[in-house]
Design brief:
The structure holds 2 protein chains of 2 kinds.
Chain A lengths: L4 E9 L2 E2 L14 H11 L4 E5 L4 H17 L4 E4 L5 H9 L4 E4 L1 H5 L2 H10 L4 E10 L2 E6 L4 E6 H11 L3 E6 L11 H10 L4 E4 L5 H9 L5 E4 L1 H4 L5 H10 L7
Chain B lengths: L2 E4 L6 H10 L4 E4 L2 H6 L2 E4 L5 H10 L2 H4 L7 E4 L1 H5 L3 E2 L4 E2 L7 E4 L8 E7 L14 E7 L1 E4 L4 E7 L1 E9 L2 E4 L7 H13 L1
Classes of the chains: A alpha/beta, B alpha/beta.
Chain lengths: 251, 193
Amino acid sequence: MLTKRIVPCLDIKDGRTVKGVNFVDLRDAGDPVALGRQYAEMGADELVFLDISATQEKRRTMHDMVLKVAEQVNIPFTVGGGISTVEDVDDLLHCGADKVSINSSAVKRPELINELSEKFGSQCVVVAIDAKEINGEWFVHLAGGTIPTEIKLFEWAKEVEERGAGEILFTSMNHDGTKSGFANEALARLSELVNIPIIASGGAGTVQHFVDTFKDGKADAALAASVFHFGEIPILDLKKELKQQGIPVRL
Amino acid sequence: MDLKIVNYGAGNIKSIQFAFQRLGYNAVLTNDPNALIKADKVIFPGVGEASSAMAKLRESGLDTIIPELKQPVLGICLGMQLMCKHTEEGDTKGLGIFDADVKRFSNQVKVPQMGWNIVRNLKSDLFKGINEGDYMYLVHSYYAETCEEAIATTDYEIEYASALENDNFFGVQFHPEKSSKVGERLLQNFLEL
């Protein structure tokens, strides 16, 4: 049976992890490669590296990082942040990234999704969608959730699937950072609407939140950052508990 | 060991090279038929769309070279699918090394299948030290039907062949290079065949 995936997300700036990480004795907790390896050994199913560097120049550092991760980590990983052209993706895949995640650039120019899936295959195209529920309706937001748009979440999700996205990474801005659980109602609706995998993001605080997002939110994977980085939820314990509660996981 | 990866412009080859590097081997990319014929072991990778991948193989004449190889050959993902008789993807005739047809998952399940799934009914030395029920990482929309040449099966909507073997030819639907320690064991096994 296909298992549900647990995906730690690392924010990267200038080739270093940004938010503090404090879950193991790592000499250098800012080294994304060492962290990635550690997570792989702890049972993470996939990794996401999100580049928040501001300039193109700094992005070259990202290429070096991706190469090193590919060299040393034996599980799949996705790279996101600032990707806006076919060439960007070509570079990252050549460095060994398994998938890329695009967000604002897809909203600004939706054809990019078609171009990427035709050139590289849907399997490596993750479309990240940040959305916020306003008066009962979900609207897509840009630039890390800071810029609202008129685009409706469910319409956009359907469109990205039709354009060839292989997966959707959905972050609820209402839940992100709250540690009060994932946006399971919206997630379940998304999962029924489209026929590609959905990664739930935003709101993880407890083990039960993961259980709920797989059961009620019908998510295929769940992404989180701080609960993993600070050792609040050890991945192995999480997966054991998920299994206990009847959710298929790789142990 | 002279380990070669068939280079026909398909997919994430870096990951495969790095996986062998972690095992202490240098896998070299080539599209030179002579280099492939002389190699001790050949990896036939593939990510992307079947009909355009087959077209690339034909352009370089590799479609006739690969089925004639005598040493152990390992097809990975689309590589394995192209070694089958036919695939529904782009209605493409394959290399015919495996007596299996490749079909698309129905929309009863999410397509692509993406993630970790179990391999079982393991039959070959390729799976030495790997247990029934171990997990491999898969990303695919098309699958090979179970057949006599199946050396592993996986369940997603139906039971399908997740690995195939015919003489010196092996194919795996999953990505051993991305399947943690279990995948590394399989690659090691392949090198020891």
